[in-house]
Structures are given as structure tokens and as C-alpha cells.
């Protein structure tokens, strides 16, 4: 037979049970925001992400190291000037209307043994050079300038792009020397042009870069002619500069390289919130 607890023990057990019921009632009370549970509210706040706790517009950590977004005025300020180029290049006012008819032609699909998509890429190359849209249509501000030296021209475009699209276009440019090694295009008057595409070196500036040399052999003013273009594209953040130099007198590799170095420095300065110097920046 079990023994019954003594009276003092029964009283203590009852007191503990009542205390436990009161505590449970206080915790289950509908007033969750009342003063009865300040520690619980503090714990919930501590568990929140620091970025959620920060007031709107206030810093939530270290500043981003990525370049700023390009503005309309920034794109214009980043453009090259005559002082940035050597060799007597003269800036022109109508560079946005430059169009070389030798770049106009319908790519001959029969030149490609693998797939018609290769011909499409080569057509896109010619069209992009003619329309100054080799990197695709900018998604942000865009500015363009041009220079002349005899019969040679140098064209620079600075623009803001979608990052994923920009990287894809640079990668696409890198495939063209293989895809479009040599092909034929037919002009509107029926004349044929032979186009060759090779890889070109680009100074190690910016975040990513790609270079090409394109030669087009055809007729200009009823005379045989060869158009040679050196092209370089450099990405800085979500912005990019494209430099194209050359003409019927041949390519402009050294001038394009110099323009890329100076142009990239100017673009970086603008994206960092500065103003490019009127004198060219010394670069390696």
C-alpha cells in the first residue's frame, strides 16, 4: 500500500501548479504586443536580417565596389577628345551619320557547310558594323564621337547595357573568327564582297574585352577596294566602349589600342564620380 503525502507536501504541490497555470495564461494571452513579454519581442527583432532593420535609404553595410550606373552626361564626358589621340586625328561633328556601303550585303549561305546559323552570325556582324550596334542596342545612355585622319576614320561609342546581354555579346564576338573566318556577301547592285574576320589583340583594360579585324574586298566607285577595320570592345561594370578604326588605307591597330586605353580610363573616372582631365591620362 502506498503512503499519502503529508499535508505540507500537498500544499507545496498545489502552489506550484497554480503558479504554472498563471504563467501559461499570461503567455497565451491575446495581447502579444503587451508589456508582459518584452524579451520575446526583442528576440524577434534580433533574429531579423540587418538589412531589414535598417531605415530606408540608410547604409546596410560596406559600400558596393561595383561602378556606378552610367548617365547621359557621363556617357558624353567619357568620350575621347583630340588630346587623347596621337597622329593628327581631327574630331568631326557628323560621326553618327557615317555609313560605309562596303558593309552592306547579303551573306551567301552556301559558304557555310555546318549550319545556317553561322551565316546569320556573319550577317549580324556586317549589320552591327554598319549600324554601330555590334554590342547590341544599349539599354542605357549612349554617346558617340568620331575622328578623321586622311582617309582613315576612328569611331568611339560609350553606352550602358544590360550586364547579361553585354557579356553574351562579348562572348559572341569571340566566336566570330571561327564562325565567319571567310565568307561572301552580295551587294544590292549584285557585286560580291569577300569578307575575312580574324582575332585582334586588345589592351588588358576594363573588366572584359574582345577584339576583331574585319577586311572587306569589293568595289568602291567602280574601282577595286579593300576596307580594313580594327574593332575593340571593353566592358567596365555594366557600361562599355567600342572603338572602330580603319578605312580604305588599311587598319588602325595602334590608334585603336591607344583609344581603348584612354577611353577606358575616362569611362572609369566618370563611373567613379569624377571628371576626366582635359589632358590624356598616362597609361601603360
Give the tags.
alpha+beta; 25% strand; 284 residues; 9-stranded antiparallel sheet; 7 helices; 33% helix
Order of helices and strands: HHHHEEHEEHEEEEEH
Percent of sequence in beta strands = 25-35%
Going by helix content, strand content and strand pairing, the class is alpha+beta
Helix content: 25-40%
> What order do the strands of the largest sheet run in, or round the barrel if closed?
1-3-4-9-8-7-6-5-2
Number of strands: 9
Mean pLDDT across every amino acid position: 81
- Total helices: the number is 7
Distance between the termini: 101 Å
Uncertain runs are 1-64
Largest sheet properties: 9 strands, antiparallel
Tell me the radius of gyration. 33 Å
Shape: globular
Structure characterization notes:
By secondary structure, the chain is of the alpha+beta class. The chain has helices at 7-27, 38-47, 50-53, 72-77, 116-131, 163-179, 253-271, and strands at residues 90-92, 106-107, 142-149, 152-160, 182-186, 192-199, 208-220, 223-236, 239-247. It has a nine-stranded antiparallel β-sheet, sandwiched between helices. A hairpin with a 2-residue loop joins strand 3 and strand 4 (152-160). 33% of the residues are buried.
